[in-house]
Amino acid sequence: MRQVRxxxxxxxxxxxxxxxxxRTEPRTATADRVVASVCPFCAVGCGQKVFVKDEKVVxxxxxxxxxxxxxxxxxxxxxxxxxVNNPLRQKKIRYRAPYATEWADLDRDTAIDMIAxxxxxxxxxxxxxxxxxxxxxxxxxxxxxxxxxTLDNEENYLIKKLFTAAGAIQIENQARI
Length: 177
What we know:
Layout lengths: L1 H5 L12 H5 L9 E6 L8 E7 L2 E7 L12 H4 L1 H6 L7 E3 L8 E3 L1 H18 L1 E4 L5 E12 L5 H13 L2 E6 L4
Parallel strand pairs: 7-8
Antiparallel strand pairs: 1-2, 2-3, 4-5, 6-7
């Protein structure tokens, strides 16, 4: 009857929507702000619109203004809100010493110092100044880099510069492998 009264003969408009449906609004409509971002999962760099309410991410959608993805996200990109809001997400630096059975929390400065000390020590211990014939090598075999596909070009450029300056020759990226 509603279809006839409203002129919606094919049942594709207001005749088939309930009052509850008309009152329903997307959770992103109540967001305090929208932040432009890039999907963290792969090297494609799809644009995302991150909806924030009360300083909590309430939704992530594809950014239609992105020239890369034009508003589309793959299933992993569409699920990135779960990555942010997962209650099991680690928010502390965790360290398990060799032969230890328990993890320990570390502050950031201690962790950075530990990494820097190990980097310098590995570089020093693996340094090769010349080969067997006296030809200059000036390299280390003690460190290597395997970059991730979620890094952008600028980050990969800086990592390449850092490891090359340190004398590493084993510099690779997951996206290229």
